[in-house]
Each structure stands twice: as C-alpha cells, then as structure tokens.
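Progress narrative, Year 2. Work on Nuclear anchorage protein 1 (inferred by orthology to a C. elegans protein) from Anisakis simplex advanced from sequence curation to structure prediction during this period.
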Amino acid sequence: MSKLDEMKNSLDRIEERELAPECVSEKSEMMMELDKLKRTFECEVENAEKQRNQLIGKQETLTDAEQLVEALTVLIGKGNVLLSDAKADPSSYASTAELFEHPLKDAQMLIETASTKGIDLSQLNDMVRDAKCLHTQLVRRKDLWREFVIQRDMTLDQLEVIEGPLREITRKPVRPSNEVLLDLDELKMVQADVQELRQKAAELRCLSEELDPLESVYADVRFMDTDIEQTQQQLGDIMQLMDTELNEESVIMGSLQDMENDFHQLEDKVPSATNNEQLSNVNITLAIIIGCQLFHAQLA
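Result:
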C-alpha cells in the first residue's frame, strides 16, 4: 500500500460528525486532492514502466543487431575467400550459400521491427546489403557448377558413344569394298557428331570462365579438348586410310578390267596365229593376265 493510500485511509477513518463544519469541507477537499495525486502518480508509474520496457526492448534489439552483424561479417569473409579460392571444393558454393539464409531472414525481420520503433540499425542495413550481394554470387556459382557438371557428363557420355564405332571398325578384318563403303558412311555420321562435341566443349569452356578462378573446371575442359582432338584425329586418319584403299582398289580393278578386255581380244586372235613368234607372244600375255587374275582373287 502506498503512502497516498495510507493518508487517504487515515482521513477516511475520521468521523465527520466529530469534525467542525468547516473541517468537513476541508476533509472532502483533501480526499479529492489525494485521489488526484494518486491518479497522477499511477499515470507517472505507468509511463515510467512503459519507458523502461521500451528501453529494454531497444537494448535487446541493438544486442540482436550486433550479433547479426558479427555473424554476417564472418559469413561475408568466408564467402569472399571461397569465391577467390582456385582450389575450392565446388560443392561448397551451395552449402555456404545456405548459411546466409537464416541470418539474412532474421536481420530483415529485425530491421523491419526496429523501423516501427524508431531504432536506427544503419550498420546492420549496410551489412545485409553486402551479404545479399555475396549470397547472390554464391547462388550463381552453385548454379553454374551444377550446369557445368551436367554438360560435362553428357559430353563425356556422347564421346564414349562416338568412340564405340571407331573401336569396332578398326578391329574389323579385311573385307569387301562394299562393306568398307558402309563403314565409311557410318564414320561420316560420327564425324558430324564430333563437330557437335566441339561445340559443347566450347560451351563448357565458357562455363569454366564464369567459374574463374576454379582450377578443377579448367582441368576438366583441357582433358575434354584433348580427348575430342584425339578422337577427331583418329577418325580422320581412319577415314583417309579407308578412302585411300578404296581408291587404290578402284585403280586396280580398272586395270584388271582393261586386262580382261585385252584377254578377250587375244582369245579372238589365237586361232589366226600362224607362227611360233605370235604364239609365244600370246602365251606371255596370257601368263600376265592369269597372274593379274590370281592377284585379284587374293584381294577379294
């Protein structure tokens, strides 16, 4: 019980019949004054309590803001180191970006709450701006790395598919020219696929540049370029060899056809041969033609 209440109770216990008339009026005025003082006091206490709560709330907000500034400062430092690390683990882009999400969300909510209370959090505002910028970069790196892995694996799979026909054709034994022509047509299709691979390798190179300075992606692209270059070189060598052999066979077959025509002409002349010299020439020519036919049979 407050002093005002005690004073009011003391006055209230005084019987008015025991007071002089002028004192009754004075008692009434004193009671009214005490009520007024009590209301004023209670209002002051309420205002003081309100100010106290506001001060406590402000201090809690400033403390929370300070903790968030410290947390974001650490994350920004970690993120900057990761983005500039040439030997970084690319999977760290995603995990590090996730670390920013809760502090940024809490900071944004705290800033909005503080603004309604008139609390200045300019330092936290600046830190949130920097953290959001870095978070965006990390998310971008994460997406680029994921795209790089997808494109790299698809290109490697396609390269493996292309190398299959090459291995199969190089292992084939000697075969008729019509089969060689079929293989050559297949290799021409493979050649078009290799050109497509070179385009994909160029796209991978662009992705690796966006992931700069990450060394692992540059290494992957170099290995990819080397594999494609070797495959293209092997393909070109095989096609050139097959084309050369087909041309040589065509020349030989043309020569054999000419010899066969000559043979038929000689056959027509044999009955009219009348002396030994003519017969000798015919025999020599026949021997040459037979030898060529045997050679042709071996080629077939």
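The mean pLDDT is 82. The longest helix spans residues 21-83.
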